[in-house]
């Protein structure tokens, strides 16, 4: 087994998961529609005043992102577990952590990247001041990979529990709180005119550390769940 063959396996898992998900387009559209619905309806609940909406816009966007990450997270490994694919991955000669990383990347491409693309629309709908748009985008780019990585760990831990959706939510939501605090703090700093880069750099560091360690945690959780 060579490094080239391992990366070939990585790309194969990515292509396979993308093809499977594209056959169930509702799994891709539902989280995005959820975010747009929350962002569109929230001004109706608190009023259209730009002062109020601008101050809470970041929190609304990030809370919607956190909740949308939980939509369908139970199915991240469930279908592979039921049809035996997950067991075959554990028996593969390639590092399971590398194959788990491929699934994390696919999850981000289908959930995190569209959110980053939708960020300007969400900011416009919630009347977020333009000087904070770039900071919001930076927090989403740095923070959404953490969402995908932590979601993958939780999904791998609960994949063998039948209906583990409620348990998965209970496991993941406390882990998302620091991310929400740092992201909101960065945008708040931009709004008041102070430096936002310390929080953004901290989010970036957390993201890199999470992406480095998460594949090994997912691989260990998959082995426990399969065995």
UniProtKB/TrEMBL annotation:
Where do transmembrane segments lie in this chain?
28-46, 52-72, 104-126, 132-159, 166-187, 199-222
In Gene Ontology terms, what is a biological process of this protein? cytochrome c biosynthetic process
Gene Ontology cellular-component terms for this entry are:
plasma membrane
Q: Name one GO molecular function term.
A: heme transmembrane transporter activity
Is-annotated flag, keyword Protein transport?
no
| The UniProt record lists the keyword Cell inner membrane | yes
Superkingdom, according to UniProt? Answer: Bacteria
Q: Which Pfam families did the record assign? A: CcmB
Where's it mainly located?
Answer: membrane
Keywords associated with the record: Cell inner membrane, Cell membrane, Cytochrome c-type biogenesis, Membrane, Transmembrane, Transmembrane helix, Transport
Q: Where in the cell is it found?
A: Cell inner membrane
As for membrane topology, the entry says: Multi-pass membrane protein
Sum up the protein's function in the record's words: Required for the export of heme to the periplasm for the biogenesis of c-type cytochromes.
Q: Per the similarity annotation, which family is this? A: Belongs to the CcmB/CycW/HelB family.
UniProt xrefs under PANTHER family: CYTOCHROME C BIOGENESIS B-RELATED (PTHR30070:SF1), HEME EXPORTER PROTEIN B (PTHR30070)
Name of the featured protein: Heme exporter protein B
Record organism: Pseudidiomarina halophila
What gene name is listed for this protein?
ccmB
């Amino acid at each position: 087994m060579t490094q080239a063959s391992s990366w070939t396996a990585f790309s194969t898992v990515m292509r396979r998961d993308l093809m499977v998900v594209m056959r169930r387009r509702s799994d891709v559209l539902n989280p995005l529609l959820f975010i747009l619905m929350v962002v569109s309806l929230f001004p109706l609940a608190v009023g259209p005043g730009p002062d109020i909406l601008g101050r809470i816009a970041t929190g609304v966007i990030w809370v919607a992102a956190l909740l949308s990450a939980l939509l369908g997270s139970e199915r991240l490994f469930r279908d592979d577990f039921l049809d035996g694919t997950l067991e075959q991955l554990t028996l593969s000669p390639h590092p399971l952590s590398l194959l788990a990383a491929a699934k994390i990347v696919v999850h981000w491409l289908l959930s995190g990247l569209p959110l980053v693309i939708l960020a300007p629309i969400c900011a416009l709908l919630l009347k977020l001041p333009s000087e904070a748009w770039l900071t919001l985008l930076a927090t989403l780019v740095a923070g959404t990979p953490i969402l995908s990585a932590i979601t993958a760990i939780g999904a791998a831990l609960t994949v063998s529990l039948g209906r583990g959706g409620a348990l998965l939510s209970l496991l993941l939501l406390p882990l998302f709180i620091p991310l929400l605090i740092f992201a909101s703090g960065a945008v708040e700093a931009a709004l008041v005119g102070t430096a936002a880069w310390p929080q953004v750099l901290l989010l970036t560091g957390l993201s890199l550390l999470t992406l480095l360690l998460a594949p090994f945690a997912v691989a260990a959780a998959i082995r426990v769940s399969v065995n």
